[in-house]
Amino acid sequence: MKVGVLTGGGDCPGLNAVIRAVVRKGVQEYGYDFTGFRDGWRGPLEGDTVPLDIPAVRGILPRGGTVLGSSRTNPLKQRDGIRRIKENLSALGVDALITIGGEDTLGVATRLADEYGVPCVGVPKTIDNDLSATDYTFGFDTAVGIATEAIDRLHTTAESHMRVLVVEVMGRHAGWIALHSGLAGGANVILIPEQRFDVEQVCTWVTSRFRASYAPIVVVAEGAVPRDGDMVLKDESLDSYGHVRLSGVGEWLAKQIEKRTGKEARTTVLGHVQRGGTPSAFDRWLATRFGLHAIDCVRDGDFGKMVALRGTDIVRVPIAEATARLKTVDPALYEEVGVFFG
Ligand code: F6P
Predict the structure, then answer these.
(1) What residue stretches are annotated with the Phosphofructokinase domain (predicted)?
(2) Is any atom of ligand 1 closer than 6 Å to the C-beta of 172?
(3) ipTM of the complex
(4) How remote is the CA of residue 1 from the centroid of ligand 1, in Å?
(5) How far, in Å, from the CA of 259 to the mean position of ligand 1?
(6) How many A from CA of 45 to the centre of ligand 1?
(7) Phi/psi of residue 110, nearest 5 degrees
(8) Which of ligand 1's atoms lies nearest the C-alpha of 223?
(9) Is ligand 1 within 6 A of the CB of residue 125?
């Protein structure tokens, strides 16, 4: 049995832990051979491979990024993409493909498995934690940890100058990172894409915080949009998913706060810092368990399935379940956290 492995989409702390677990168990327990595909779906499309064996995965557990490389290449959007993938897998003697990715990568895997009979197993990843069918994705805990540390640090500089500090975190469509890091870091306002925000209300919270002699921290997800829709975007373009990419909400909000409250405001955009570097212990644990269960799916011939975390159990679900809809923040949960605003 030869197993192909690829990592697609944005990188995420814990990808290497999955690769290591898949290879270690696959070689040691089942005697499988492996082929690594470079740069997500570009690898099988172009037959671009890297050797993947026990020596290749030594020492990679704590490393961020992915030793296989990643890309947002979508073979479904390429001429003859499916045919080329099938031909390359067959030429390389690859009997099964473990695809580690988010919405886009897994969307391709589900179609390849369900419509074209390509034996794919899915492993969910994204720092955004917005994939359905799994309680958590690895990478999220690391991203929340980094954002929380940043908020902790920003509190002291905000207090020293009695300024408003706006922290923009990742999350185009879901506010999980904003919500978790904002709560953990004691933010005074948290704004998420799921609920349009009212700039006047934000300013009221900011002012009441100053009245209590504290400097406010506002955490805003990059995809958050003001209620009146009058946001002037610094840059508006389509990302590789074809979604409108909003850019600059943090800076825009800081300017609005300054204008409306007369208080000085600064913005910190955390950006890719949240995605880089070593994974947290939880993410290593989750990614490793996903890897161990993914190779068992291969052993069982259970294709078109994805591993998922339910409570403390790793279960198998159709890959399509993860990609059918985004897992967004429930309004009741957002309201619960709202007790700390202002
Ligand atoms: O999907 C994960 C994510 O980190 C989003 O939160 C963010 O908007 C996006 O990736 C950034 O992608 P890229 O690295 O392609 O700019």
Answers:
(1) 2-297
(2) yes
(3) 0.95
(4) 35
(5) 30
(6) 23
(7) -65, -40
(8) 8
(9) no
DSSP bridge pairs for 121: 98, 305
Q: Which residues contact 328 (CB under 8 A, 6 or more apart)?
A: 130, 173, 174, 175, 193, 194
φ, ψ (nearest 5 deg) of residue 88: -65, -40
Three-state DSSP class for residue 200: helix
Cβ-contact 211, 201 below 8 angstroms: no
Report how far apart, in Å, the C-alpha atoms of 295 and of each of 5, 17, 18, 165, 286 are: 10, 13, 10, 45, 15
Task: Please compute Rg for the chain using Cα positions.
Answer: 22
Q: Give the 3-state secondary structure of residue 49.
A: strand
Residue 104 Cβ < 6 Å to ligand 1 = no
Encoded tokens for 24: 């270690």
Binding residues for Mg(2+): 103
CATH number listed for the domain at residues 143-275: 3.40.50.460
Residue 28, number of CB atoms within 10 A of its CB: 10
At 5, phi and psi to the nearest 5?
A: -135, 135
pLDDT digits (tens, 9 = 90+) for 133-189: 999 999 999 999 999 999 999 999 999 999 999 999 999 999 999 999 999 999 999
One of 2.60.40.1120, 3.40.50.450, 3.40.50.1820, 1.20.58.220 is the CATH number of 2-138+279-322, namely: 3.40.50.450
Q: Whose Cα sits closest to atom 14 in ligand 1?
A: 10
Write the single-letter amino acid at 136. Answer: Y
Distance CA 84, CA 96 (A): 16
Residue 214 CA to residue 313 CA, distance in Å, equals 43
Rounded to whole angstroms, what are the CA distances from 14 to 97, 286, 289, 330? 19, 8, 11, 26
Do the domains at 2-138+279-322 and 143-275 have one common CATH topology? Answer: yes
128 counts as catalytic:
yes
Cα–Cα nearest to 12, from 154, 131, 114, 110: 131
